[in-house]
Amino acid sequence: MIRRLQLKSWRAFDALDISFDEGVTFIVAENGVGKTSLIEAAAWALYGAKSGIDGATARRKDAEGPASITIDVELPDGRLLVVTRTTAAKKPLEVRVNGVEQPDGTLEAIVRDAFGANADYLARVTILPTELLRSYAEETFHLRRHLCQVYGVDALEEAEAHVKRYLTSVVADTKKVRSDLDAHITDEARLAERLSGLDAGIEELDGRRRQIIMELDGVEAVTTAAAKNVEVLAANTARAAQLEGLSARIADKLGLAVVDGDLDGLVSDEERRVVQRLDADRRELAETRGKLDAISAALAELEHAGAECPVCRRELHESDVEHAREAHAGDAGALTSLVTSFEENLDALSVRLDVVRHLQRELSRVPAEQVEVPVADTAVGSTANRAELQAQLTDVSEQLGAARTERTQIQDQIGASVQARSEKAKATQLFRREAFATATQAALQETIKTVLATRVEPVATEVTNRWKRIFGERGALQLTPDGELKLVRGGFEVPFADFSSGEKVVALLTARLLIVSASTKASFMWLDEPLEHLDPSNRRIVASLLATSSGPVRQILVTTYEEPLARRLVEQAPSVHLQYVRTVED
């Protein structure tokens, strides 16, 4: 606690030397005499710039020398800290502990180690000018910030912020992957539906084509039976030659034997089989490449892991690293061979598919087999009917060819989409990372919340109890882990801004006294005019609260001009003291 304060050339004081005892001390003086100057002098001497006081502006205008403040502070371990701070340019600060001068720049560390809190926090909870006394904002209380430092929550919050940044990045990546996969699935469904429609259309067109050919054959019978049969024979001979040539090419290029002369069915079946094999091999190739990439990543992590297991961070022996490297290298070699095999198979299948589709297009151009019509059975038709049917046949054949070409293109698109989707399957590890990061962030947030609530809860409970002893059933005062004060009254929460003036002062003083006790080892609190602007009833309540305070805070100093009230409290309690302050002019 503060034992002595010496002022020289400080505001209204030319020189002042005043000592202080334990308990509650009321400093009485008229307004304008210098009560606030005492509070500011103590804060500036002990905390320097962190007090918010500019010592240069506090120097008396008529003083010949610099302003100086010497403060004697009894530390919790019994040592005596003496700090002399001046506005002189040469040696503005001198610090002694038990008479031994301390090195420059060590005062903050001495204060921090002795009182268990940083100087900026102590400056806001131990020596309070009027404007700070009546504020409860978190940036003034600094309760949460201090608890985070004391109980290691800073590191947890830093880790939570890191996880949050990582999670933001992963979520963006997974969102894009999900969007791409959904787009592929949607496209494949749309293409499959279109393919199904094309298959039905091709079947219908092919039936129509055959029907037209049959009708055209009947119309062609208007020519002479001999000419017709010659033409039929020639056409069928040419067709047979084409089919024979195509059969030979199918056998040569594809190694397929023609059964019952169904080249169309044979080639179509082969096309479906090759496409199915291509799709299957592409999927397996994508999965194998994903495994190979994972092994390559594992090898890279082994090279850069710094002799630690990349998963559990256990220190690895060199033999472990080498064993893992050999195992991964062996797997990588096997997978590389498998990838090469798949790629060779895909190349061969692609070439075969091109051949099949080329033969299919040639087959589509082979005319249907014509049938010889006996002279007696030949139908009589007109040249006009023949021309109309011929036009229909040309139109249907063109539609059939276009439908088959589109069908081939759609099959290619489906195959490419399936391959792309298979390659993106390796991105599922992003989803695992997202889930892990989300769970980690939630755990860190809950841990931070639990630590703060656990440490603040005893203080909050005592705040509520002391409030109840003063105001009875006028609601329950609550202090949140973030330093927020609120009043629960009749089932409703009343924010601090809606407190009465008396309630505000009592709430703040109650909370601040307990916060100093719970979050620091400081044994003193100096308050500048806490009774000002209160009505007589609330003034008595606040003065009694201060006079009857007990606990680790051994010294409370209150500046006031309420001399009669202070005198009554001195008469009622032996631990309450009264001191008068006079300026040099007095």
Task: Provide a compact summary of the structure.
Helix 8 (153-220) crosses helix 13 (428-471) and helix 14 packs parallel to helix 15. 62% of the residues lie in helices and 13% in strands. With 586 residues, it is α/β, with parallel strands linked by helices.
Secondary-structure blueprint:
Blueprint (H helix, E strand, L loop, with lengths): L1 E9 L2 E7 L3 E6 L6 H13 L7 H4 L9 E7 L5 E7 L6 E5 L2 E2 L5 H9 L3 H7 L1 E2 L1 H4 L4 H4 L1 H8 L2 H68 L4 H30 L8 H42 L13 H47 L18 H41 L4 H44 L4 E4 L5 E5 L2 E4 L5 H19 L4 E5 L7 H12 L7 E6 L2 H10 L3 E5 L6
Parallel strand pairs: 3-13, 3-14, 8-12, 12-13
Antiparallel strand pairs: 1-2, 1-4, 4-5, 5-6, 6-7, 9-10, 10-11
Average pLDDT reading: 80
Distance between the termini: 29 Å
CATH class of the domain at 2-136 and 484-580: Alpha Beta
**CATH topology value of the domain at 2-136 and 484-580:** Rossmann fold
Radius of gyration: 48 Å
What is the annotated CATH architecture of the domain at 2-136 and 484-580?
3-Layer(aba) Sandwich
Beta-strand share of residues: 5-15%
Uncertain runs:
376-381
Relevant CATH superfamily of the domain at 2-136 and 484-580: P-loop containing nucleotide triphosphate hydrolases
* Number of separate strands: 14
Number of helices in the DSSP assignment: 16
- Helix-strand makeup class: alpha/beta
Write the element-wise H/E pattern from the N-terminal end onward: EEEHHEEEEHHEHHHHHHHHHEEEHEHEHE
**Coarse shape:** elongated
- Name the strands of the widest sheet in spatial order: 2-1-4-5-6-7
Major pleated sheet: 6 strands, antiparallel
